[in-house]
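Per reviewer request, we include the raw input and output of the structure prediction for the construct analysed in the revised manuscript.
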Amino acid sequence: MQPPILPTNKKIKELVEQQKIGKILAVQVDSSSYLPDWHPHEDYRKGYAARKELGGGIVLTAIHELDYLHWIFGDVHEVFSVSEKLSDLKLSVEDYSAVIMKFENNVVAEVHLDFFQRPYFKSFKIKGTTGIITWNTDANLVKVFNAKTKKWKTVMDSTHTLLTSTAQNNKMYVDELTHFFQCVHKRTKTINDLEGGIRSMKTALALKKSSKLKRTISV
């Protein structure tokens, strides 16, 4: 089954494929949130994300960041990570991960993941030879900087569907299920098929191994 994909990420992938900022050189991703805020009416300490024996931790829980990076930029060649528990949250897993990923096409990504930041914030910046593509949850605009004209252009305004909207968040999961059942009915592959899921999991496990061994790991 595909992971939930934001309309903004779809637009960013389209811009990359259209080479709107030339050859892609580097990427910066920030995915920060406060775990107890995820399900305010539940005890976060009992959830899978907080518990090692249930496969928790920020690296595996935030694997959708790896999913969409693979989706846009392809296979990863090698990774390096520092993944640790830094906060005073009652967890048996890492709540912070600083990641460097080098893709097969030589694009380098810096990825920041954490469970302890308030307020919630996500951002995505792509640097190319002729410009920059940016997006973040505060403005919820996909913007492109043209190095030749030295001007910014908003190419997608999603302020009417902010991520803080429960309805919009729910729609992602409805779209996910709709896509899955359509693929079952038509007997076609999902956007993120089994091979794609395995690819993301291998990358995530390589990040955890890198942090433990304190060295770069080939994927």
